[in-house]
Design brief:
The complex is a heterodimer of chains A (224) and B (301). With 224 residues, chain A is α/β, with parallel strands linked by helices. Chain A has helices spanning 41-48, 74-78, 96-105, 111-124, 140-152, 170-184, 197-203, and strands at residues 2-10, 16-25, 30-35, 56-61, 64-65, 81-84, 158-162, 189-193, 206-211, 214-218. Classes of the chains: A alpha/beta (224), B alpha+beta (301).
Chain lengths: 224, 301
């Protein structure tokens, strides 16, 4: 469960970006976070990733109290998360399977399990035939699926996707979103930060609108 | 059940060498600067060791001679010796009694060309007095030792070189302060050079560090290759400096100072262990400190 309680956050010399944010996301939920530029989406992400600390209020994620999380526990917390970046953050000199295996290797997964896990997850994102390809040989949508595979391979409880469709064409966007919905059906919490209202309305999932640092619920109609 | 974590040491060592060869020219430049810093520190140390050795050779520096009254009896001599040995708070004092007869013999030995002048002097006409030679190990207390000796009843005269000893001591302290100053400055330069070099590797691997942080890699896992890179640079610079120093010391002792009888230079072997372990310690510690500082910011950003 993710629980923001009266969270405020301001940057040095600025006004409050988050202004008493209250929000609860249950395990296995799929949630869109939308809002205009400066509404606090990025700050909310940074708090979830524990890149920033709250100024006041409390934030609890997957049993971790992020308001007082010591730095030595940070890696353990982040293993509960899978992060998908807008710019993919793939390593150009590594193949697809090496990019995915990287996430396993750096958390100390024994070598004998790595190949089978990579194979399984690439199959899940429908990229098993691109395992030996390099990122520059892939389309934007395929690159984002590699990034999604890397986020999923350590079996995190929560997937956080920051504008996952920002750099890909509309058809591929649907494909990525379908994959994220499928992931949420595996009882994983999925949080998608986006500004693409069409995409949000298409999927009809719980939507949080951030306005002036506060959360407002919106349940859009599902487009047929 | 979760599988046990498994980390290969070859990964860390491989990444460390990758970092070195990725920015080879910068690393080479850093090693050269480190070698220069270590050589300067080593040369200063050798200079101090040689100064101390040469000053210690001037044996008069740590000796005081006291002369007793001409009519001092054996009982007086025993009492005075006991009183001198009782001055324990003034450091370790070595007391040697020189009888007036022995004094005369020593004069003959010291001045063999004029030894005939002393021949035939009857014992009762010996112009010398009984004396004690007091050797001390703490030259900073020489004035107190001298003062205490003058207070002993039966002591006629105290010969010391306290003014010279004090000047020598001040000089030694001054040289040590200068050494410490340069040591700190050069150590800081070494750390600064390693920070800059490891920063280059950190920059070229920034995307990997970013992803590692967000998939939950442990801080030590991210930092270790960079720290190893700093250690390898420091240790390599220490090794090069040691052999360069050995050659340089041999050259100075064998060629430059060989013809100067008034200066005694220590052979390199006399302080080679200190130089080796000192260089390794300085190189490795500056490598650890420099690389740790470099990696802190990207890990916390």
């Amino acid at each position: 469960m993710i629980e923001f309680k009266n969270v405020t956050k301001a940057y040095k010399g600025g006004k409050n970006v988050l202004n008493g944010l209250n929000l609860t996301i249950e395990d296995g939920e799929f949630v869109f976070i939308v809002g205009d530029t400066g509404a606090g989406k990025t700050t909310m992400m940074k708090l979830l990733l524990s890149e920033e600390k709250v100024d006041s209020g409390s934030l609890k994620v997957a049993g971790f109290d992020l308001t007082r999380l010591p730095s030595f526990k940070l890696p353990k917390y982040r293993r509960k998360l899978g992060v998908v970046f807008q710019d993919f953050r793939l390593f150009p000199k590594m193949t697809v399977e090496q990019n995915v295996a990287f996430a396993l290797r750096v958390v100390g997964t024994p070598k004998k399990y790595i190949a089978s896990k990579v194979k399984y997850i690439l199959k899940t994102v429908q990229l098993e035939n691109k395992a030996k390809s390099y990122p520059y040989e892939l389309s934007g949508g395929e690159q984002q699926r590699v990034a999604l595979a890397r986020a999923l391979v350590n079996s995190p409880d929560i997937i956080i996707a920051d504008e996952p469709t920002g750099n890909i064409d509309p058809d591929m966007s649907r494909n990525i979103m379908d994959l994220l919905v499928m992931v949420s059906n595996l009882n994983k919490t999925v949080i998608v930060v986006t500004h693409e209202r069409d995409l949000v309305s298409h999927y009809g999932k719980r939507t949080i609108i951030l306005e002036d640092g506060r959360a407002r619920e919106l349940y859009p109609e599902v487009k047929k | 059940m979760r599988a046990r974590k498994s980390y290969s040491p070859f990964y860390f060592i491989g990444q460390a060498f990758n970092g070195i060869f990725r920015n080879f020219s910068v690393t080479l430049g850093a090693v050269v600067v480190l070698v220069c810093c270590l050589m300067l520190i080593g040369s200063f140390y050798a200079l101090i060791a040689n100064i101390n050795e040469n000053l210690d050779d001037l044996t008069l520096m740590n000796k005081i001679v006291i002369f007793l009254e001409y009519d001092a009896t054996d009982e007086d001599c025993d009492r005075i010796e006991k009183e001198i040995k009782g001055l324990r708070e003034l450091g370790n004092l070595k007391v040697t009694f020189v009888s007036k007869e022995q004094g005369l013999e020593d004069m003959k030995a010291d001045d063999p060309e004029n030894a005939y002048l002393y021949e035939g002097i009857p014992a009762e006409d010996n112009p010398l007095a009984d004396s004690f030679i007091i050797e001390y190990d703490d030259s900073s207390k020489v004035q107190r030792i001298e003062y205490n000796l003058r207070q002993i009843e039966g002591v006629r005269k105290v010969n010391s070189h306290s003014d010279v000893a004090i000047k020598v001591n001040t000089f030694k302290n001054g040289v040590t302060v200068v050494f410490m100053f340069f040591f700190i400055v050069l150590f800081a330069v070494g750390i600064f050079v390693i920070i800059n070099t490891v920063n280059m590797t950190v920059f070229s691997r920034r995307d990997e560090i970013y992803v590692m942080r967000f998939v939950g890699a442990a801080r030590w896992f991210i930092a270790l290759p960079f720290v190893l890179e700093g250690i390898i640079m420091g240790a390599f610079a220490a090794g090069v400096s040691y052999f360069a120093m050995k050659w340089l010391a041999g050259y100075v002792v064998g060629t430059v100072v060989a013809g100067l009888d008034m200066i005694t230079l220590l052979p390199f072997e006399a302080y080679s262990d200190i130089v080796l372990y000192g260089f390794l310690s300085i190189g490795i510690v500056s490598g650890i400190i420099g690389s740790t500082i470099s990696i802190r910011r990207p890990m916390d950003a």
